[in-house]
Structure formats: C-alpha cells, structure tokens
Amino acid sequence: MTQALVATGPGEPLDVREVELRPLTRVDVRVRVAGVGVCHSDLSMVNGTLAPSYPLVMGHEAAGTVTEVGDQVTGVAVGDHVVLNWAVPCRVCWFCTHGEPWLCAAIEGMTGTPGGTLADGTPFEACLALGAMAEEVVCPATAVVPIPADVPLEEAALLGCAILTGVGAVRNVARVRPGDSVLVLGQGGIGLAAVAGARLAGAGRIVAVDTSPAKEALARAAGATDFLLADREQPASALGKQLRAMTDGRGVDAALECVGSAGTIRQAWTSVRRGGTCVVVGLGPKEQEVTFNPLELFHFSRTLVSSIYGNSDPERDIPALVDLLGEGQLDLAGMVTDRVDLSGVPAACERMARGEGGRTLVVFDGS
Asked: Does residue 364 sit in helix, strand or coil?
C-alpha cells in the first residue's frame, strides 16, 4: 500500500488515502516519487474544466528513483533518477510519423488510465496515466526519462510539465528570435517558465503580466525586463495600448497567454503587432468564447495558435533542458514558492485558483 492524494469527484475534497498500485507488468517500472508539482492541469481535473473518471489519484509532474523494473525493460535500471512523462507518444500514428508527437492519437483526450485500487477495493484512475501525487507510481518504462544523478531530484519534477510547456511554447511555437519583444500573460509555474524560455531565446524585451504585485520579483528573477500589473476590469485594448507604447507603436512580436481564459486570450491577441504570433498556452473552459471580427483578422495578419505540452518531445527535450541546467541557464528552485506534503495540496490548489505564488512542490520524507 502507498499513500496517495485521491479526488472522488468535481468539487469534492481531496483526501490522502492508502491505495494499492496495479501489479508491475513486464514492460513497467516502479518509481519512488521525490517531488511532484501542483499544476493547473491538476486543478482542471477537479474544478469541472476537464471530466476525468473518479476516483482519481492526482498528479503528473514528477521525478523520482526507479525501484523495480519489469523483465522486458531496457534503457532504465533500478536506482536511476527519472522524470516522468505524462504524454507518451505511440510513435506509429499519423501525427507521430509526421513529426507531431504532442498530438499523438493514442493520448488525445486521455485523462487517466487504470492505476489500482483503493483500500476498499474500488478501482481508481491514475491521472494522465501517472497518478504521481503518491509515494510511488507504477507506469510503463516508456513514461520515464533518465536524468543524471547530480540534478536536484525534487525540483527536476518541473522538467516534466512546467518547463517543457513554457520553454517549449517559446521555442517550438512562438519561435522567438534574438531581439524579439515578448509578452507573457500569467506568472504561475508555466508563465515563469515561458519567461525563462524567452530569456534563453535571447528576447530583447520580455514583459511579464499578472494580477498580483507579488509576482514581479519571481518574473524578474526568471528573466522579465518589465512587469505590468493587470486589472481584471480593464478592457482588452488597454493592455494592447501599453504594449504598443513600449514597442515603438507596433505591439509585441509574440504573446504567450498562460492563464486560460477568454479575456486574457483576447488581451494577448490585441497586444501583438501586425504579423506577430499569439500563443494560447493556458487550458481554459469550453463555456467561454473569444470573438474576432473579419476585418481585424485580415488587417493584422496575426497568427493565433495553441501550444500543447510546449509542442515538445520529452525524450528529446528533457535531456536538452538538463544540459541548460548544467550550464546554469535554468533555475528550477527559483520557480518553487511553496513546498508541502500531500495534505498541503488542497491549500495549494486554492492559492493557484487565486493566482498566488509560483510552483508548489510536493516533497516526500526520505526522498
């Protein structure tokens, strides 16, 4: 039995419970979790934005140590440090064979897979095939990416989602070039990673925006050159005017919306120059709508595109991010504002819903 954080339904309290993980198959590994991030996608699993099956063991952004391997597993061994990958591509569908593994048909719309049973025998789902808010996880060996032993293991959890998503959105979707001006709306874990990605790409001006003044220090530490305090009541055009004033009247070359709401998507779009790119990174509800008129679409010639998992391939991109860590170009610990145990996750979700803090990291005794 292992301790895990269980959701029983939308809006229901999250409980720490004893669970029995599913048996290890010949192609699986067992991982002792060292750290797991509290991601906005976790919040979406319980606030009605997504509709997973319940009960659900939460969590997907994690790193840990391999403690057991199936007899057909190669490439990873007991004792290896690994980052978990919640979006394992099949490598054979149309999207995978056409260079878009983040759109893999095998994982489209997937929210969980059978993970084991609760103490009373009730089957549970493992969130995004991992269920990583637990002392241990059992997952396919293809869902782990080995990392060097000298990478701080707890903080390495952020490589599995926030960093891949934020940095990837900048590099792979917005394709920011040296000297570009970049807007990042929302300074949670992924927004901070996007700011860091813009800095890594050599952006000239990086404008971070958030509704909380406490986010300014975090954003500037990640690489922001400017910080603007957003007003939830102001029209979308107001931010665009501020950004144009900062960019010789044009607007920014690229905007990354890391909130996931119709209002902030419209703000990001309005802030982009003619011919620029607006990237929707945040996961928003289907009930909201964003409207555009035909004339503005024609006149501004902007690109509006979403970023799924940073359009990343974790097998390729996590090692590249580890190299940046080794070179001192990424600071994972600087994005972590709270460290809690499993019982602290509900409060972390409340902080995230209020827009407070950066990344909350769940850590385990003895990790």
From this structure: coil
CB-CB neighbours of 253 under 10 Å: 23
Q: What is the rounded (10 degree) CA torsion for 172, 174, 177, 182? A: -140
123 and 254 co-located in one domain: no
Dihedral sign (CA 251, 171, 361, 155):
negative
Residue 195 lies in a domain: yes
Distance from C-alpha of 57 to C-alpha of 7, rounded to nearest angstrom: 6
Q: What are phi and psi of 69, to 5 degrees?
A: -135, 145
Instruction: Fill in the amino acid letter for 67.
Output: T
Q: What are phi and psi of 61, to 5 degrees?
A: -100, 95
Q: Which residues of 66-75 are buried (b: 16+ CB within 10 A; e: fewer)?
A: beebeeebee
**CA 302 to chain CA centroid, nearest Å:** 25
Look up residue 156 and give its amino acid: A
CA distance linking residue 14 with residue 32, whole number of Å: 21
- Both 91 and 179 in a single domain? no
Separation between Cα atoms, residue 242 and residue 228, nearest integer Å? 9
Grade residue 366 by pLDDT with cuts at 50, 70 and 90: low
Q: Quick one: 243 and 352 in the same domain? A: no
Residue 48 region, left (φ>0) first, then alpha (ψ -120 to 50), else beta? left
158 vs 196: CA distance, rounded Å: 13
Note the pLDDT tens digit of each residue in 126-156: 999 999 999 999 999 999 999 999 999 999 9
User: pLDDT digit string (tens) for 266-301?
Assistant: 999 999 999 999 999 999 888 999 999 999 999 999
Half-sphere exposure for 45 (CA within 13 Å, toward CB) = 31
Q: How many CB atoms lie within 10 A of CB 332?
A: 24
State the sign of the Cα–Cα–Cα–Cα dihedral 256, 87, 199, 302: negative
Q: Which domain holds residue 174?
A: 166-309
Cβ atoms of 237 and 270 closer than 8 Å:
yes
d(CA 158, CA 164): 8
pTM: 0.93
Nearest to 113 by CA among 59, 53, 197: 53
pLDDT tens-digit map of 336-348: 999 999 999 999 9
Helix (H) or strand (E) holding 219: helix 215-222
